[in-house]
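Narrative progress, year one. The postdoctoral researcher (J.K.) led the effort to move from monomer predictions toward full complexes, under supervision of the PI. The following entry was the first complex the group processed end to end, covering 808 residues in total.
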Amino acid sequence: MSTTYNSSQLPTSLTGIMQMARDALLAQQAAMNVLSHNVANVDTEGYHRQRVSLTSRYPLEGYGGTWGQGVNIQQVERSYQSFITRQERTEVGNLGRWETERDMLMRVEELVGGLTDYGVGNALTEFWNSWEDLANDTDSVTARLNVIGRAKDLGTSFGNTYTDLDNIRKEVNVEMKSQIDTINNYARRIAALNQQIYTITGRSQNPNDLMDQRDQLVKELGKMANITIEEESNGSLTVYLGSETLVFRNEFRTLDWKVDSTGSTGPSGGNVVWSDDQRQVQLYSGQLYGAQQVRDYVTEMLSKLDDLANTIRDEVNALHETGIGLDGTTDNAFFRTDLDGAQSLQVNADLLNDPQKVAASAVSATGDNSLAHDIFNLQFEEHFDQGQSNYNDYYQQLVVELGNKIDNAKTRADASQASLEQTESWQQQYTGVNLDEEMTNMVNVQYAFTAASKVNSAVDEMIQTLLASV
Amino acid sequence: MRVTNQMKRNQLLIDLNRLQNDVFVSQQVLTTGTEVAKPSDNPSDARRIMLLQNSSSRRDQYLQNISDGVARMSYSEIQTQYAQDLLVEARTIALTASNGATTDSDRASMAERIDGMISELLSIANSAHEDQYIFGGFNTQDPPYQAIFDPTTNDVIGVQDQPQNMDGEVYRTTADGQQVRINVPGKNLFMTGTTGDSGDMFQILIDLRDALRDGVDNDELQQKQLDPLDPSYDPLATWSPAQYDSLTTIQQSLQRLDDAAETARNVITRIGTDVQRLQATENRHQDVAVKEQEHLGDTQGADLTEWISKFQMQTLALQQAIQVGNTVLQSSFVNFMQ
């Protein structure tokens, strides 16, 4: 039995087909647009590749079954892996901390110069040895001038090292203040982006590029401090610094620098606090934490230098005051007693004016060198670490501890760097742009566009044919 | 695995950076010859290096102390040897004079020689090394011994030492916690007792000189006793008590001079032993210093053979990485699109 059809039984008219072809053209144009966007951002840091998500239109019921209605642009998707992003944020925080510690401590190491011929260690050895030179030549003014010269060198070494370290501490404080400004700026910008993303998401659109920008800011922020993130379904990110909220939707809190010259901060130092309640910010990761760690460690070093210099002053003075100078005088302090600390280890002015007052003898006779021996032997006395370390040990421990800290920071920074590289590579696998892939897609899109165009012109010819028959 | 352009670029940059860093480290090591230039290069080695540097510096000081000590002791030894030689010579004179067979002129000449020896011994006792008196104990700036002169004859009639610190012992530090005495206090050599007593070397010579001057002439005595034609003939002539005392003094001085020479010998022996001990310590320090330098070289210095081969491999790897990177980054589908 033969069947006859009329146009009402077909689901789509010729113009409907042209409509489908037009939609196909628009879909491919959109695909080309996104593809072009991907190519343009092939090297953009933090860019997540995008794809036009196309779906076939809901089919129509018709004769013989369902009939396709062409293509529909569903959305522009962003390749995003939240797990990898979280991982990346953790690694970036660790890297920020360890790189900061490594770089700043390496500067400290250059100034301390533990293995070089300059610096406190060498000056200390020369100072002790000068007393033996005096013991070899007890009635010599030249040997006394040598002792004074070595003592001045020691004082200068202490002073220079202390000043250099103190300058680093000040620079770190300045750096921390600058980092606070940067964090505040990031928090403000993330809050602003939250607002924009919330608004666009509310319109059922995908603010992909804004999300990329926000992710990049969050990553930068994560490099500076220990942050955690919570994502809301409306597209907003809540950023926590420690356990405190830094950004919530379009609101943000700021950090402040609270001047506190006591304790570990040093002169003109301070601490990182929340601007609103002035409570100290709990840091345990990121560049800001690294800087804080270095500053506190440098303060510890300065305190140890003070301790070392003061002990040398007191112990040498205690012995020297019992001795008798070449001029027969006694009870002369070798170092100034009115000054305190590593910056102020200075030879008593009376001895500078009259070197004969430098004592080498315990009795009133120039040939006795027992006091010079005793002062030389002071270096073996264990005055530090509860009687466990002598002067040289104490200083060497200071230097070795610094070396260990740098070594540890280097190792941890390298490990964090390797881990971050791996995570970033992993992230790139999912979200990065591959130009070959884009070019292949481009050829596809180009052909699809051409094909849709052909359909359009074919239908047009069909319509022309029909019209010509009229 | 999906490989993106950024992955390729980042990986290349990471690899290049790592290789360049390796090459840079090798470059630093090879140009300085030092593997541990900073404590952070190897903290445990840095600790060892600082200990070695410190020990080496102290060892240099000890070697200097020993050198100075040996010089002083050698000088003291020479001077003591001179003193001993004087004592031996004085004994020979005393021995000659002790049998009473010498003439007045012989004794006068002997007395003059002994008088000269007193000055020589005083000069020895006041000898100085590098402007420091060596036998004065702690008295190194002022002469430790002063002669007392007879105002009439201008003869030395005694020698006075410094009132204090003549027994001062001067030490040199020769190793950690180790000191060696490097002086001979005059109290141990020239005046082992108090001034003028039996241990006073000067007094022995002064007594001998005076005894020689006051002493007897046997020939003269015999002539008095035996020659009736001699105007001074006196068959009952004998030595006066004073003359007997002089002879006794001369004879006693033999023992005293023996004792003094024995003292000088003992001092010389002790100096010799101490110098040997110092030289043994010096040799030990020098041996240890060589080993320390080797250890320091091993710890701080670079094994050039190892580092040069490492450097060559690193530069080769770097060149390869650059070449590979160049190829990888330039290979793209874009190049083949019409």
